[in-house]
Design a protein that fits this description.
This protein is mainly alpha-helical. It is built from 10 helices and no strands. It is 78% helix and 0% strand. The radius of gyration is 52 Å and the shape is rod-shaped.
């Protein structure tokens, strides 16, 4: 049994004789031809016959129903839904039940299973004994359940991927924090070495000062020593030449210390090589 389409388009054959006063003969004839073509599976020609009849009786709900069935068979479900809606709103409860049934079929084929369930239930409200509507309702509920499980699974996978990304980002942050910590410790070590280097330079300058003074004492000739004894006010003073050499030595030590600071801090060198 094909659960996805009802063959209730034959309804119009049953009511045409009773509607002889409503449909004139050309409309009834075109509708009859359409039904025969529909039975043969020639849905294109059947649709043409129904629409020809509809052009002469545009408000006939039975023709809306038949046009909807032909459109359904052609896979034109949104258009079929419009025709079934017009058929269902005509006030004929039996026709409305059949139109709701095929509306449910159209939504089922569009994989809109919740809407299919709703319209099968509407059909059963009018005709609770309709076995085909009950079968299709159960099938639609099964498909709806499968669809919801699939959506929940996809949502769960999306959440897992989001969680994995957050964990990855957190790991990168921890890694960056560790690297920053190591860099900070390295900078502290470099500054400590820098201070030690400055201390060595100061000691070097003091040593140069003492050596210079010692050299001055060694170089004094007897005449200079005699002058020192007779001119006590000048004792311990440097000659201009000695003072200049000492100043040059101090400057050299200071420059070397500054260069060492630049290298220890890791700043890029932008001048000449030293």
């Amino acid at each position: 049994m094909d659960f996805n389409i009802s063959r209730r388009y034959l309804l119009i054959l049953g009511i045409l004789p009773m509607l002889g006063g409503v449909f004139n003969d050309p409309v009834a004839q075109k509708n009859k031809e359409g039904n025969l073509l529909f039975d043969e599976g020639n849905y294109d020609e059947a649709l043409n016959r129904y629409q020809e009849a509809q052009s002469e009786a545009p408000n006939a709900p039975q023709l809306h129903y038949n046009v909807g069935n032909a459109l359904y068979k052609k896979g034109r479900f949104p258009e079929a839904l419009q025709e079934f809606s017009k058929a269902a709103s005509a006030g004929n409860q039996d026709l409305a039940a059949k139109a709701h049934f095929n509306t449910g079929n159209s939504y089922f084929r569009m994989q809109k299973f919740q809407e299919a369930v709703d319209f099968y239930e509407k059909s059963l409200e009018i005709n609770p004994e309709d076995k085909e509507a009950k079968i299709n309702l159960e099938l639609a509920l099964q498909k709806l359940n499968e669809q919801q499980k699939q959506e929940n699974q996809e949502d769960g996978e999306g959440e897992n991927q989001k969680g994995e990304k957050e964990e990855s980002d957190e790991g990168e942050e921890n890694k960056d924090s560790e690297e920053e910590k190591k860099e900070g410790e390295q900078e502290k070590g470099d500054e400590s070495k820098e201070d030690e280097g400055q201390s060595d330079d100061d000691k070097g300058v003091e040593k140069q000062d003492k050596d210079s003074q010692q050299a001055q004492g060694d170089k004094k000739n007897p005449q200079d020593q005699q002058q020192g004894q007779t001119a006590g006010a000048n004792a311990g003073e440097l000659t201009p030449e000695e003072a200049e050499r000492l100043l040059d030595a101090m400057k050299a030590g200071e420059i070397a210390s500054q260069k060492r600071k630049v290298l220890l801090k890791g700043n890029p060198y932008r001048g000449n090589e030293w």
